[in-house]
Amino acid sequence: MSRVDGAVSEGPPEAGAEESQVVSLGISNVKSFAAALQCLRASNKQTCTVQIHTEGVSFLWEDDSKALQSNLLFKPELFSRYTCASGVYHEFGIQLQLLLDTLAVFASASAPMTAHYPGPQAELVCEMTDITAGTGPGQRASGLGGAYGGGGLGPGAVCTWARIASLEPRSVVDMQDHWVEPTSSFLCPGFLLKEAIDDLEWPGGAVEVRLQQDPQRLVLASAGHGVLEVEIPSNRVSGFHCTQPEVRFSYKYRHIKLACCNLPNPRDCAAISTKVSIDANGILKITHMLGLDPQPGGRGLAGDQPSALFESQRLINSNKVAVIQFLLQASEEEGAPS
Amino acid sequence: MKLKGTLTEDGTRKLWKSFLPTVEKFGKTCQLLFGEDEIHIIQTSLDTDGVHVTARFATSTLFSPDTYRCQSKHCNLIAFQVQVELLLRVLKGAAATNSDVVEVKLTNRTVTNPAGESTARPFLCFTATGPSTTVTQDVPIGRPYSASDVQALVAAKDVGSYCPAYADLVPALAQAQAIVDRLKAVDDTAMLAIGRGGDAHLLVQTTSLALGAQLRDLPVYPQSAYDPTLIDRSKPVGEQLQSALETGAAASVYVQLKQLSRVLHSTLLVEPAQVLVGIAEGGNYVHVLHVFRNPLNEDGYDDTVTLSFKLPVRDS
Description:
The structure holds 2 protein chains of 2 kinds.
Chain A: E1 23-27, H1 30-38, E2 47-53, E3 56-62, E4 68-74, E5 81-83, E6 90-95, H2 96-107, E7 113-117, E8 124-130, E9 158-164, E10 184-188, H3 190-199, E11 207-212, E12 217-223, E13 227-231, E14 238-241, E15 246-251, H4 253-261, E16 270-278, E17 284-291, H5 306-317, E18 321-328
Antiparallel strand pairs in A: 1-5, 1-7, 2-3, 2-6, 3-4, 4-18, 7-8, 8-9, 10-14, 10-16, 11-12, 11-15, 12-13, 16-17, 17-18
Chain B: E1 2-7, H1 9-26, E2 29-34, E3 38-43, E4 52-58, H2 59-62, E5 69-71, E6 78-83, H3 84-96, E7 101-112, E8 118-129, E9 134-140, H4 147-157, E10 166-168, H5 173-183, E11 189-195, E12 200-205, E13 209-215, E14 220-221, H6 237-247, E15 250-256, H7 257-270, E16 274-279, E17 285-293, E18 301-312
Antiparallel strand pairs in B: 1-5, 1-7, 2-3, 2-6, 3-4, 4-18, 7-8, 8-9, 10-14, 10-16, 11-12, 11-15, 12-13, 16-17, 17-18
Helix pairs in contact in B: 1-3, 1-7, 5-7
Family (chain B): Belongs to the HUS1 family.
Pfam families (chain B): Hus1
Organism (chain B): Edaphochlamys debaryana
């Protein structure tokens, strides 16, 4: 990773010869990005590996147990500006909570934000200038001997800036490299899964995912100091594909909760659809499509309203979709298919 | 010792709608200081977690002038401590019953304590007269202050000397509030810098994160302190702050975000026309002064009411 003496200037760095390594990103809907990243959050002290290249920005994370990993991809189309010279590739670690705290500060304004990497100390630099602030009621008070500064932005413009230190990236072995066909899978509204998993908390045991071919059934169950089974009604499940008469694997509750229950508030970031796949050895892949540009005042896509379908179509058409993926290993003790 | 008067409608409303709820956010108790010309609601570190709060009213903004009497052996000053909640409840009650007149009077009443002994206790007696009801309520108060305690409170009500420069946060007030609230998640202490060029900075810095906000081109008071040539906008924001601190164009201190947030949120209750923030010479405290608009004059300020806060600073 080359260090660049690029000034942390208010505008984007000029693409000079020595700065061709600098990646500059414009983000116009900070709230949605923050909401999408929030899905990855598992703990306060969590370090994600960030990869930036011409294909987009991805965040990777692996649980210490190695039985859970997640990745989130923001494609270049999601950014209002994406300046990354071809062949440029950056990989660094970042404390997710610091990034989320920073984005929360930026999201309190509605202005677009600029991020670039690397800064003078190989840090991630974020900046935002909110000029809408200068139109507050206080301007009326200007006639009373107050002295204003010059500058084109007007009084009360707010510049927010942050530098987040980068860390050594952690290498993550992609669990998908060990994916073994055949794959059983289904599609289902993310919020339905979230509700089911939330309900399965009380027995306090591992969660069993059970797919049955004939009749077609999808059951989530947990047994601990009690037994609870949740059957997802088949009319809410689509693309159901089960490769054996019955596929049944168990996963740690903590892992599956993280993968299903961190879905963002639909106001900021709409969960469009969720795909669940299981490979022959029980690796569970949960993929959420997140709409990063929800319609203002939208009700989200969890409901049954026909408008939800149009809304998701609109988001897919406009390419404002981020993909977040969780990969879970089946827990050993009771994971064998029956 | 004699204290009585009739609250004006506007005075009652100011107290129960704006000032007492503000004071309540800082502490459960407050100290009232009555004088011939001014009335103060004061909170010192006796009442709060370190912030000093002083609300000053000309007596005529709270009481009908011809009804107000305040006499004592000590310069006609009377002071005592009282529970904010009790005052608030009485005044809200009076407003709820559409009372036209609220009379206030300092009284002594004999009460019997649980042990069966009779003692004289001081009360502030409120009589609210409405179209259909008259409600009299006695609010128990602390023992009126001795001459030396009154003197100490008089000294505590003022900030001492004014700060060399103040910036008016009002043009960026909503943003400042939002930023302070979000920064609270990152750290409990932040650096606050006020520059004579009209910039205010907030900065939270840890080993792996620097997160700052610059509120630009704010009005500066007094005008003689204002110097726009001190700012070089061609530099990055962080460096502008750094060089302002190095050249002495800006002063900085570390404040508790929790306290700063509470002060900024008080503006929602009292709606000041200016929120002047200054850092004391020597950096011993932060002074925040809310200035109010004169309701009778569009361009003027109301010099009969002010609300000021003195925030303690931290070493880092």
